[in-house]
Amino acid sequence: MGRHPKNQPTKASIQNGSPTISTYEKYKEIKRKYKELKKMNNELNEEYGRAIKEARKCKDERDSLLDKLSTNYVNGESTSSMDHQKRPKNSLIVYNERPTAQIARNIVNDIPAVSSSSAAKRGPGRPPASSRNVKAYHVDKDTNGNYVLPVEVGLHTILSLGTVAYDRSAYHNDRYIYPIGYSTNRPYLSMIDPTRDTIYTSTIEDGGDNPRFVVQAADQPGNPITASSATGAWTPVIRQANSIRNRKHSNAASGPDYFGLSQPTVRKMIQELPNAHKCKNYRMQEFEVHPIGTRGRGKTSRKAKY
Coiled coil: present as a keyword of the record (predicted)? Predict the structure, then answer.
């Protein structure tokens, strides 16, 4: 037997009449429960460790699949483009503008917010995403009711909200609206200098039946990347930026994230544009508007961080 802990009652002290028998029995019962809890805690720690390893494994598999998906998509788009049209002289990468936007939107995270299968899994107690309020931040408007631009939202500086082409179905889906003329800046790793970042301007242009997504790096003027989806436009940026840094990160990209379209504040601003309510497939979102100063010390700022 080991040494008795300090202040631990012993049988000898009991015989001398110090504590009662019931006190000693209580001590033994507490000690027994302590050992049980310690064993349970160890088992939970082991289970937690296994869960972490499994989650990492799943994430690695997901990144690998997304990388293959984006690679196959971009390679397929560029090959088709070279077969059917001559690449413009001033373009870094140009992808075919055939009606594949719907396929492109399903790569990575740019997928419909609600589906019948996902609603069934969610159960009756939880409302669909489109009916839950999302937090957005206040942006000033001018006397005509238009948002004062440019405005900083997270990493993005919104330069223009553009105009809504409600009568062309490819210019919106149930989750996003793609306004013609929408433009935003954001910093990201340079594709030509591994030691520097640069500013990228993302723009949505009128491509006829389908929108054209353009990404222009500030340190490569005159060499835009053009694609038929936001994901297709940003994937080569991420791939090249990782490549010159010898990074083995996943090259998968969520186009709406990099275009700023997934930011709640930006989504709110876009769905308030004229004719946005006429987009038949888009689901209007309810937003909780918060003053920007409530996140800090009451200072009013044009910058909303997420």
Answer: yes
